[in-house]
Design goal:
With about 60 residues, this protein is of the alpha+beta class. It has one domain: Alpha-Beta Plaits. About 35% of the residues lie in helices and about 25% in strands. The chain has a three-stranded antiparallel sheet, covered by helices on one side. Helix 1 crosses helix 2.
Length: about 60
């Protein structure tokens, strides 16, 4: 399992957190996603590839740094 820390600048509310969580868990249902809209930080613990996770978040409408 890999831990990724990323910034999602346009994440603003709990609905954003839910959307990002669903996007990541669509790739890896066992993934753990912790997201804080105030700090714009997302931590993902997953077996999925980093590029795939970032692409899934981007496909959900969010920019990932």
């Amino acid at each position: 399992m890999t831990t990724l820390q990323m910034t999602v600048a346009d994440m603003a509310c709990s609905a954003c957190v839910d959307t990002i969580t669903r996007a990541v868990q669509g790739l890896d249902p066992a993934a753990s996603v912790q997201a804080d809209p105030q700090t714009k930080q997302v931590q993902v613990d997953s077996t999925a590839d980093e590029a795939a996770i970032k692409a899934a978040i981007a496909a959900a409408g969010y920019s990932v740094a």
